[in-house]
Design brief:
With about 450 residues, the chain is of the alpha/beta class. The chain is built from 14 helices and 18 strands. It has helices spanning about 25-30, 45, 50-55, 105-110, 135-155, 175-195, 210-220, 255, 270-275, 285, 310-315, 380-390, 395-400, 415-420; strands spanning about 10, 35-40, 60, 70-75, 85-90, 115, 200-205, 225-230, 245-250, 260, 280, 290-295, 320-325, 345-350, 355-360, 365-370, 420-425, 425-430. The strands form 3 sheets. An 8-stranded mixed beta sheet has the order 3-2-1-4-5-6-17-18. The longest helix is centred in the first third of the chain and has 20 residues, at about 135-155. The N and C termini lie far apart (about 50 Å).
């Protein structure tokens, strides 16, 4: 006998994003279990998931989701799509609570809604559950090395001496596998022709080994790099035992990235988490020898920034060509992340002396890659993986009684979903104490 679920669930599209939180095959399967799932029409999504596929699968396409109790979408809804008392699941970008961002939950709270942030759905160990695999990190690494090639070209490095020009924009590859193959080919080219003198030795640093950081590291390893330790980056590497026919990578853990202000005692993760205000960045010595730096750490305003404008001003380092901030947190752990970019214009150049920026790779300073739309570059693959991670929670979302108070013992929600609640009945709830601060 098919179970009867109390809540109708709607899938919303986005005006500039063709991804979907649930793919058609999963929707069809869930509807077969008795869950009332409908999809709002979207011309943007039709490019990747054509409407004919939904129709053939018997999935209703509707013009409005106003009668749905639960609405799933990739981005927060605009005000006209906020319906009183409805439960919304999306990437609200409220996880860090930064004051520069207009909190997407504001209009939802005003209308007594429930907001559940996809990014906050974590397991008992604090690890994220609903995610795009490591696509974001891998594609971010592609965009970063593309930007490096373009920057060196702007600096008039001869094309024959600039192997990084062979890397195209991430969206120009037909698949992630094709991009990985291009990186392997780049590795072979460096092995035979070497890197330009202006970026020798070629060192790429990484902070953060979670989902995004791990993806970036995985992609970079296709170049077959030599792994260094943090202490290997002290001093002038140009006079060390390095080869222009190699690439080098270093992963900086928290013990390397920060230093206690008033103590010579060794780093303690527990002490750092309890007293983050007693620490400051120790990145300057490493950045002096890097060509590329990739940031993917969790950060909020309790913690010291990794890269501050004074650090960059003191360095005035022509070797540091590109900083990839996969967190895209404006004025977050990277002070020169002053804007989010997108797939149309993925990079800007930042001058630490004037704090002025310009889109693209031209101008004085360091190129910043802060593309917040990386997962949308390969919407089919990323949607499939995300849908798989969300699928198991849908029956509980369809059955939950959202009229109950959040602290009512009769309220039944899976623990990962409960932890992800930002607001309930129009009131802010929850905290970040459970979140694992990944290296």
């Amino acid at each position: 006998m098919t179970r009867i679920y109390r809540n109708k669930i709607g899938i919303a599209g986005c005006y500039n994003d063709s991804r979907t939180p649930l793919i058609p095959s999963h929707i069809r399967r869930l509807r077969g279990q008795g869950i009332d799932l409908v999809v709002r029409e979207s011309k943007v999504r039709d490019k990747i998931f054509p409407r004919e596929g939904y129709v053939k699968s018997g999935i209703p396409l509707v013009g409005s989701l106003s009668d749905c109790k639960v609405i799933l979408s990739m981005a927060a809804p605009s005000t006209r799509y906020v319906f009183s008392g409805t439960t919304y699941l999306n990437f609200s970008h409220d996880i860090s609570g930064q004051p520069y961002q207009p909190l997407s939950s504001t209009s939802l709270i005003a209308r007594g809604c429930q907001l559940i942030d996809f990014k906050r759905i974590v397991d008992d160990e604090g690890k994220r559950v609903t995610l795009f695999s490591d696509f974001t990190g891998k594609l971010g690494m592609v965009e970063t090395i593309w930007a490096l090639g373009q920057r060196l070209d702007f600096e008039r490095v001869e094309k024959n001496s600039n192997p990084f020009l062979m890397i195209r924009r991430a969206g120009e590859y037909e698949s992630l596998a094709a991009a990985e193959d291009a990186f392997r080919q780049l590795g072979f080219m460096i092995d035979s022709k070497g890197v330009p003198d202006s970026v020798f030795p070629f060192v790429c640093g990484f902070a953060g080994t979670g989902n995004d950081g791990g993806g970036a590291i995985s992609m970079f390893r296709n170049l077959n790099p030599v792994t260094l330790r943090a202490k290997d980056l002290r001093g002038d590497l140009r006079h060390g035992d390095f080869s222009k026919y190699n690439t080098y990578m270093v992963i900086l853990d928290r013990g390397a990235r920060v230093i206690e202000k008033d103590s010579s005692v060794g780093f303690s993760p527990d002490h750092f988490n309890r007293y983050p205000e007693r620490y400051q960045s120790d990145m300057e010595q490493y950045l002096a020898n890097m060509v590329v730096f990739v940031n993917a750490i969790y950060w909020d305003e309790r913690f010291p920034r990794l890269i501050t404008n004074p650090i960059l001003k003191r360095l005035d380092n022509p070797r540091l060509k590109v900083i990839a901030d996969l967190t895209c947190q404006v004025h977050g752990s990277i002070d020169c992340t002053i804007r989010e970019t997108d797939n149309r214009f993925p990079v800007y150049t930042y001058d630490p002396q004037t704090r002025e920026t310009q889109l693209g790779v031209c101008g004085k300073g360091v190129v910043m890659m802060t593309n917040h739309s990386l997962a949308a570059i390969l919407p089919n693959e990323s949607s499939e993986h995300f849908s798989r991670s969300l699928y198991g929670f849908i029956p509980a979302l369809a059955q939950c009684d959202y009229s109950l108070d959040f602290d009512d013992p009769k309220l039944v929600l899976p623990d990962p979903i409960r932890r992800a609640v930002v607001s309930w009945h129009g009131k802010k709830v929850g905290d970040m104490s459970y979140f694992r601060f990944s290296d």
